[in-house]
Amino acid sequence: MRGVKKTNLPTKQCPVCNRPFTWRKKWELNWDKVIYCSKRCRTEKK
């Protein structure tokens, strides 16, 4: 069996919409720096 099951992926909570979002492959190298769940939340942060 390869990798990690989707149920065991790390999650964070978006400070704008307060929804949980899970780890994505494209965020593999900078997961510590990811704060927002989407571009929309990033632009509406204020």
Automatic annotation (TrEMBL):
Cross-referenced InterPro entries: UCP037205
Entries under Pfam families matching the protein: DUF2256
Protein name per the record: DUF2256 domain-containing protein
Annotated source species: Microcosmobacter mediterraneus
